[in-house]
Amino acid sequence: MARRLAQRVVHLVNMPLRLNLPAKTENITEFSLRTVQSANKIEIKRVLQSVYGLKVSKVNTINYDGKRKRRTEGWMAKSAPFKKAYVILQEPVSLPRNLFPFNLFKQLEEEKQKHEENIEQRQKSKGIRRNSSNAHSVTMNRHGKR
């Protein structure tokens, strides 16, 4: 038991944090995030300091109720309630540019088009090549010419 008391025990809160995208990516001193309603200011501050290594000076929180929406047949649906936290940092932080890959889908489509073009070029060039199994036979085009 004494050995267990000497060890350092760190408890990390299982708290989801969803960062609201700031307008700028450099010298960020204030940002907001969404979390569960049960989280308090002290827990949010400790998680940001211990897990993410941010020096937090102040945390302000607001509770939001879930929005009610009327569905067909008269029953109501409600979105989940959440807490929004506004965090003020002691030192400004900059986000890396590749953190939010906005052009990822465009790049993937361009790579796919290039790959398809390469396949088409290979198929076109196959009709001109000689047959490797028989050195004397030559492939003919659709007009019967070499």
Automatic annotation (TrEMBL):
Keywords: Ribonucleoprotein, Ribosomal protein. One of its GO terms (cellular component) is mitochondrial large ribosomal subunit. One of its GO terms (molecular function) is structural constituent of ribosome. SUPFAM superfamilies: Ribosomal proteins S24e, L23 and L15e (SSF54189). Residues 111-123 have a biased composition (Basic and acidic residues). InterPro entries: Nucleotide-bd_a/b_plait_sf, Ribosomal_uL23-like, Ribosomal_uL23/eL15/eS24_sf. Belongs to the universal ribosomal protein uL23 family. This is Large ribosomal subunit protein uL23m. It comes from Ceratopteris richardii.
